[in-house]
């Protein structure tokens, strides 16, 4: 199954092949997988009397009038009639030859979109053909006309002709069907080439609705194959890592007991279950690859800490990585507190740790005198080398992106052994996504919150009632509670966000002169941020004005009110994270979503979801529905989960089947490799990690 280079086609030279490359097309095989996004029907003529605005149709008639009019814009107007009705063809750009050809009395066939115009229905710049009197009219197309995703410098006509050539040229030897025949039979799935041919040239009587919705068997067949290829590539990554072998870490019951003893509470049943799952993995001679999902506040940090204690007791090192400095610092603080009584030294490494301090930390990490290392992604820079790293904990994973997760694995691999990996995410991921995006990971779920928490009540209020909201803050704080005021901006610009927070903080300090108002934003120095956070935590501040930097991890149980400005600009997962900062104590907490009217329909729907539920999994499902998997997984930039044909939502029902099929392919590594190559190409680095 060797790829036939695209230059094998007539007329494809360097210039054209570069353009095609921009569409991901390098071979004839790629070209056939570049599917139409929609179709035009040029297979039959529509009577002019039956035209509807918005339809894209083929029409034919006689010109009754052809005139250049000087309206607001000069245009050539041609009135077409066919006995059943009439239609205006309008040209803003035309040359003399066109004007001469389009004369009263000639027959014209035209294709274009029908729109309402000033004098009835019209087509603007239709494709057209003047028919020669006395000669038979050309027969309409036999198949629907494909409309492809495009790139600059290429035309639909050109691409269509290339696809036609490729369809003639490629046979089953070039594009063998890699799905088992028995499966195709039982599922009534068409054979590969047949499916591709069908989708590029569908017969006129095809169910166009099904095609547009991506539900046609020919599309389902390809989606299934693509999902399978994706799944297989992730499983292959997993196998490659696990072939490396890992460190067998025995249970450390005494150390765990000593650790637990210092806590003022008992573990939840869910925490215990997940810890048991992790311990079992750690005892095996293969690297653990486990994802822990747990809603905000479900106590993931402790679960990770217990795993760390077990690994450290066995004489190894543990790295804990967080996505932001604030969160990393908080972890450093917590872990240090927990570890001190056990005599474990903790090192701290972030971008801002510099000079002598940095050298010192690096030294401790390299010598192994620091058994636990907490930091940001600075942990995985070249200069950092670990003495005997056996466990990597990655917190709030989804902010790192799938790609980074995979590249981190190389770090810490030593000789033929790789460290265990524990990945924790606070953004619950819908099951369908877990199965496909994380097929390389085992999954544990902490599906229980520690007892004694009162659910947060969420209010949706327009910003025209700002004064009321300010009073609400005054009231809560006068009762000894604390509050957050979160400023958001649609621009990604951090500078603008921080500026907005500064203005708001000044305004609130003036309005609430009896309260102590603090401000924290991303442009402050880490030490300043930490100082403000510490003041808030120790209740020396009543109100904390913040940008979304407080999104993850920050833990102040006495804070029971959160105002979020312009919540309509944030994704549901992010709102859920923010809201999770309150409701951590025993008093009733409130979250006020103060939106700026008018809300779009989707905006209204999203805020409604936030008001209705505090269940992170339901919110994630809804987020997926409203925004798509790229946003939910944070993979939009990395492009990791961009399927060519499959759509995780639409094709969710295929995923169970994908898992079964992937099992079956285990015995055919050659076929699996061919599938991965076909769909992911050889360029995807993670297929070769
Ligand atoms: P998250 O899962 O969001 O990372 P954390 O690990 O930060 O949650 O825990 C949230 C808060 O709950 C912390 O203050 C932590 O000490 C506390 N906590 C964790 N486990 C329990 C438990 N079993 N009972 C009571 N409180 C707990
Ligand atoms: Mg956490």
UniProtKB/TrEMBL annotation:
Its EC number is 5.6.2.4. PROSITE patterns: HELICASE_ATP_BIND_1 (PS51192), HELICASE_CTER (PS51194). Gene3D superfamilies: Nucleic acid-binding proteins, P-loop containing nucleotide triphosphate hydrolases. It catalyses: Couples ATP hydrolysis with the unwinding of duplex DNA by translocating in the 3'-5' direction; ATP + H2O = ADP + phosphate + H(+). CDD domains: DEXHc_RecG, RecG_wedge_OBF, SF2_C_RecG. Pfam families: DEAD, Helicase_C, RecG_dom3_C, RecG_wedge. Keywords: ATP-binding, DNA damage, DNA recombination, DNA repair, DNA-binding, Helicase, Hydrolase, Isomerase, Nucleotide-binding. GO terms for biological process: DNA recombination; DNA repair. One of its GO terms (molecular function) is ATP binding. It comes from the Bacteria. SUPFAM superfamilies: Nucleic acid-binding proteins, P-loop containing nucleoside triphosphate hydrolases. Residues 281-446 form the Helicase ATP-binding domain. Residues 479-625 form the Helicase C-terminal domain. PANTHER family: ATP-DEPENDENT DNA HELICASE HOMOLOG RECG, CHLOROPLASTIC. Plays a critical role in recombination and DNA repair. Helps process Holliday junction intermediates to mature products by catalyzing branch migration. Has replication fork regression activity, unwinds stalled or blocked replication forks to make a HJ that can be resolved. Has a DNA unwinding activity characteristic of a DNA helicase with 3'-5' polarity. Belongs to the helicase family. RecG subfamily. This is ATP-dependent DNA helicase RecG. It comes from Nitrincola lacisaponensis.
